[in-house]
Amino acid sequence: MRHIVKLILVIVLISSCSARKDDPGVEYAPNMYHSVPYEPLSQVKDEDIGSWLDSNPDDGHGEFYNSNPYNPYGMTMREPVENTVRRGSYLPYRIPKDSIELAAKVKNPIESSDEVLKEAKILYERYCIHCHGEKGMGDGLVGQVYKGVTAYNSRAVKDRSEGHIFHVITHGKGRMWGHGSQISIEDRWKIVKYVQTLQKQ
Ligand code: HEC
After folding, report:
1. Taking Cα atoms as reference points, which of 132, 171, 168, 169 lies closest to residue 153?
2. Residue 125: how many CB atoms within 10 A of its CB?
3. pLDDT tens digits, residue range 31-90?
4. Looking at the chain, which terminus has fewer C-beta neighbours within 10 angstroms, N or C?
5. Nearest residue by C-alpha to atom 37 in ligand 1
6. In this structure, are residues 113 and 130 in contact, taking their beta carbons and an 8 Å threshold?
7. Tally of CA atoms within 13 A in the half-sphere of 71 that contains its CB
8. 185 with 90: CB under 8 angstroms?
């Protein structure tokens, strides 16, 4: 009797193994493993696993492998619309406004070059010049009436690091408002490069 039990055990063990790597064999409660709603990132097509489903007709074709029948390639998430413009490859800037000492240690991810400085000058003229003035002396047309715009080459500002300036552009400081919602992260780092040239006058 004991031998028969052992033999049955061995047969069960062997028969639950399978030669095919992508065949899970007998699954107990398959809806525990396979999402019933469409998986947002799934690109599984029912045809991909059709062959083994065909050999297991009772498994319910496609019941637990929900490829999306409405979109191409069975995808649930759609490709971006053609000609979509990337917002850039920078991670969101998460340093809060009151942590400017920490921000000062952040390095500028952009290398300076003539091209970058040329572009940065245009951005500076668009977003900063009316307060800070052409040479960053705080004498722009708005700066003349909006008092208290510090000169970049003043003792207080001339040694400020790139991370510090980026933080001031993002969140503002004192009487200056933040520009984080208007200027992309990449463009802010470019403007920092240009401000650095004005600090050293
Ligand atoms: C509405 C006017 C205004 C605009 C626009 C403006 N700033 Fe300012 N900025 C100020 C004022 C005012 C201060 C002085 C802040 C204070 O200390 O109260 C200042 C200070 C600064 C400082 C010195 C910060 C420090 O540590 O003391 C930097 C650097 C700076 N601005 C960069 C910029 C850049 C770059 C832009 C453009 C993206 C810009 N600002 C746009 C008004 C402005």
Report:
1. 132
2. 12
3. 777 677 777 776 666 555 545 455 555 544 444 456 677 777 777 888 888 988 777 778
4. N
5. 128
6. no
7. 17
8. yes
Report the alpha-carbon distance of residue 78 to residue 56 in Å, rounded: 31
* pLDDT per position as a tens digit, 118-174: 999 999 999 999 999 999 999 999 999 999 999 999 999 999 999 999 999 999 999
Query: What integer pLDDT is reported at residue 77 of this predicted model?
Result: 81
In contact, 67 and 98? CB cutoff 8 Å: no
The protein residue whose alpha carbon is closest to atom 16 in ligand 1 is 174
Q: What is the pLDDT of residue 60?
A: 45
- The rounded distance, in Å, linking the Cα atoms of 123 and 191 is 7
Give the residues surrounding ligand 1 with Cβ less than 6 Å away.
127-128, 131-132, 142, 146, 148-150, 156-157, 160, 165, 168-169, 173-176, 179, 191, 195
d(C-alpha 78, C-alpha 75), whole Å: 7
pLDDT greater than 80 at residue 14: no
Q: What is the CA radius of gyration of the chain?
A: 31
Q: Which residue's alpha carbon is at the smallest distance from atom 40 of ligand 1?
A: 128
